[in-house]
Amino acid sequence: MVGAGMLGLPYAMAALGWGPGVAVLVLSWIITLYTLWQMVEMHEMIPGKRFDRYHELAQHAFGEKLGLYIVVPQQLIVEVGVDIVYMVTGGKSLQIFHDTVCSSCKKIKTSYFIMIFASVHFVLSHLPNFNSIAGVSLAAAVMSLSYSTMAWTASLHKGVQPDVQYGYRAKSIAGTVFNFFSALGNVAFAYGGPNVVLEIQATIPSTPDKPSKGLMWRGVVVAYIVVALCYFPVALIGYWIFGNSVEDNILISLEQPAWLIALANMFVVVHVIGSYQISSMLVFDMIETELVKKLHFKPTRTLRFITRNIYIAFTMFIAITFPFFGGLLSFFGGFAFAPTTYFLPCIMWLAIKKPRRFSLSWWTNWICIVIGVLLMVLAPIGGLRQIIIQAKTYRFYS
After folding, report:
1. In terms of Cα–Cα distance, which of 188, 190, 164, 314 is closest to 242?
2. Which parts of 158-252 are beta strand (E)?
3. Is residue 257 reached through a cis peptide bond, with omega within 30 degrees of 0 on the bond before it?
4. Distance of CA 125 to CAs 80, 117, 141, Å?
5. pTM for this one?
């Protein structure tokens, strides 16, 4: 749950302001916890049957064809978008580590660091399933807790900057509004949990006496407590210390002490290695299933080797071409994460459970749907504008 999107939360706070920023953070935490609970509950709502994939649940809710058309493209965009962002994050964190440890060394292009980060995945991507990356996932979890703690404690140690300002960064009303939209996407990206909850729950044994939802829900609650302990201090303390001058990655704003910044960035690298693998496993599963079932390829190691390497090369190329951390966060956060995280579970709940009209459950789901749709429409506009502005002054492949 705790993703690298957390590093962009202070930047999102700078665009939202204190009041709206805190409200958006808390509301997103509550809504995504609620939609996660719905997904966990719907996993085994039919006795003897488990919906192990997001699209399987959607097919049950909307029909065989419509369910696929609604969910599969969205899930693919989510996972591919996450992997592109993690490519950028991993490469830039490696670059910061190198520049911090060896400040007198010759500068190396960001593109090369993204390639170095990608090279790890050309090896790890050939692990067979979720269980085989359990060790990588554990390391990623420990790293995320470590660098989030480093981010806010180092900010506190640095102290409130003498020239700190909490007003909006943009000079025009239009700029302020677009930055606000972009920040909504940043927050949505950070809370992208329900996308893989069914796939993870599918790995938990289940019996009539001891259904998987009990253990899964306990895991979700623990995860969300950790999310709150990581996200809120980083977002609030980071903004309090740096104000509207904070970078789109809080670790870039922290220049001292050098050893701590270097260590934190290396922790980010280890974390996004694990996170990339979890996201890419779902993409590999979709691609290889389609190739074998629809196009009748033989499920060989050669097929796995070619398809997985092509996918990694693709995400690497896009990351090298558009290495804009903040813009990518907000664009994918709104365009892809808002539907699958904020309102699709609510629509499926209404379609399957059919709560009584105007009941508490009915109102709660419709409020989440309205918020999610607004997020999906507004956030990509702000994110795309941010990418265009950054691209104007950026030297491609530098």
Report:
1. 164
2. none
3. yes
4. 14, 13, 19
5. 0.82
Question: For residue 177, what are the CA distances in angstroms to 139, 243, 385?
Answer: 39, 18, 11
* Angle ∠(123,124,125) on CA atoms, nearest 5: 95
Consecutive H or E run containing 80 = helix 64-101
Confidence class for position 88, pLDDT limits 50, 70, 90: confident
- CB within 8 Å of 222: residues ≥ 6 apart: none
CB 272 within 8 A of CB 94: no
pLDDT per residue as tens digits for the range 37-80:
888 888 888 777 788 788 888 888 888 888 888 888 887 887 88
DSSP string for 345-371: HHHHHHHHH-PPTTSHHHHHHHHHHHH
Please give the structure tokens belonging to residue 35.
Answer: 């939609």
In degrees and rounded to multiples of 5, residue 186 shows phi and psi of -60, -45
Strand, helix or coil for residue 395? coil
* Dist CA 82 CA 360 (whole Å): 34
The encoded tokens of residue 106 equal 């010759």
Other Cβ atoms within 10 Å of 154 Cβ, number: 23
Q: Which two tokens stand for residue 32?
A: 């995504």
Report d(CA 370, CA 129) in Å as an integer: 36
